[in-house]
Description:
- The protein has 420 residues and is α+β, with helices and mostly antiparallel strands.
- The protein folds into two domains: 7-78 and 111-190 and 287-369, FAD/NAD(P)-binding domain (3-Layer(bba) Sandwich); 194-240 and 243-282.
- Helix content is 33%, strand content 26%.
- The protein is built from twelve helices and 20 strands.
- The strands form four sheets. Strands 1, 2, 8, 9, 10, 11, 19 and 20 form an eight-stranded mixed β-sheet that branches. A seven-stranded mixed β-sheet has the order 6-5-14-15-16-13-17.
- Helix 1 (24-35) runs parallel beside helix 9 (314-334) and helix 9 (314-334) runs antiparallel to helix 10 (340-373).
- Flavin-adenine dinucleotide (FAD) binds at residues 20-26, 43-46, 53-57, 139-140, 172-174, 178, 198, 282, 301-303, 307, 309, 312-316, 318.
Amino acid sequence: MAGMPDPSEDRPPEVDCVVVGGGPAGMVLGLLLARAGVRVTVLEKHADFLRDFRGDTVHPSTLRLLDEVGLAGAFLALPHQQVTRIGVTTDDGTYVLADFGRLRGRYRFLALVPQWDLLDLLADAARGLPHFSLRMGAEAVGLLRVGGEVRGVRYRTADGEHALRARLTVAADGRHSLLRADAGLRLREFGAPMDVLWFRLPRVPGVAAPAFGGAGRVARGRLLVLIDRGSYWQTAFLVPKGGAAALRDAGLDSFRSGLVELLPGMAPALGVLRSWDDVRVLSVRVDRLRRWHLPGLLVIGDAAHAMSPIGGVGINLAVQDAAAAARLLAGPLRRRRVTPRRLARVRRRRLLPTVVTQQLQRQVQRRFLARVLAGEDVGTPRVLRVLQRHPVLQGLPARLIGIGLLPEHAPPGPAVRPAG
Ligand SMILES: Cc1cc2nc3c(=O)[nH]c(=O)nc-3n(C[C@H](O)[C@H](O)[C@H](O)COP(=O)(O)OP(=O)(O)OC[C@H]3O[C@@H](n4cnc5c(N)ncnc54)[C@H](O)[C@@H]3O)c2cc1C
């Protein structure tokens, strides 16, 4: 049974580190540890990385990290869009919220790339490293424990159940983390006033695009975000928490007419929404673990802290956790001595950026989004007017969104390149 001690598990570990979850956090950690000479296996429950409507925004902090390991060139050779400014359109005009062109350094834009392309690239590059192994279609079902220590995981594949003993187990298994639950780690939930409906809208010839590559539109009771994905708009429509059911009950026609008010001229594009299968609901949650580790176990990424979609920072915080964990743990893992104190340092390092980002997201949710979604006419927020009057200030939100607090660096290691 998951989590029960088993005397046969008190044997030497097969790998230094097993990472559960092949999302951005898990793949970056696997790559960085293997590159630093640590024997690491990543388990991913799906057979491939292909999933639609996941975070697709790669921020300057992640681009810098890819640069440090030698992958920025290959990454930017993938088909992608670059967003240099984010704006908000209200009833009285369009305002720039963040201008990434004002950042320092080579990467002064958000790169929009399907998440599976990023994960494929990381997997390709990591496979070339002698200490790395990736098992796809391998679903962790519980922790292996000896005494009070975690010593690896049990996992299931098409041919049955297996065990993998490891000196360190990392739970990077996302916001519904099974390992976090098995470990009994407690979560603080902060709630969110909204959910998000995601869908694609094709470009309509002759209809003016939003002013920027990424733009929000706000009208009384309605909020929409459009992200330029080249041939289509990736569209996020915000609804009050649990409100998706009421929209469904009212029917697709009524949903489409509501959208036309926000997107005048785009009515022909809305015809692509033929059924609710074309609309994906993201239940927004904001939470954080009080403790990120147990002896032999570390939790990172969404599994440690689910972020609100505001700012699209989820991937980047997950990647930053992975970089911090690799930097703090590669040496101890090579020396085969990972103490609970060392594991606690990962949380200490990442707590401030996580807390500050979540606090800001919760402020925006409470002071702005919740009120708009409740139908209040909040007008144009003052901060947008100030940013418009003093464009130099547009670099501040760009820094917060694009780089964040305490940006991390990759631990030393050779340059890697994708095998293909
Ligand atoms: C619809 C949607 C849109 C989003 N948009 C953005 C955005 O624009 N920008 C942004 O930055 N963030 C966005 N996010 C958030 C972003 O996707 C996450 O913050 C980020 O992917 C977290 O990375 P992670 O590696 O911690 O977890 P995940 O990406 O959730 O990865 C976890 C991985 O673990 C695997 N897994 C789970 N359980 C097991 C198990 N038991 N055994 C083995 N494998 C397991 C999963 O299959 C998955 O591959 C969005 C999220 C959603 C759902």
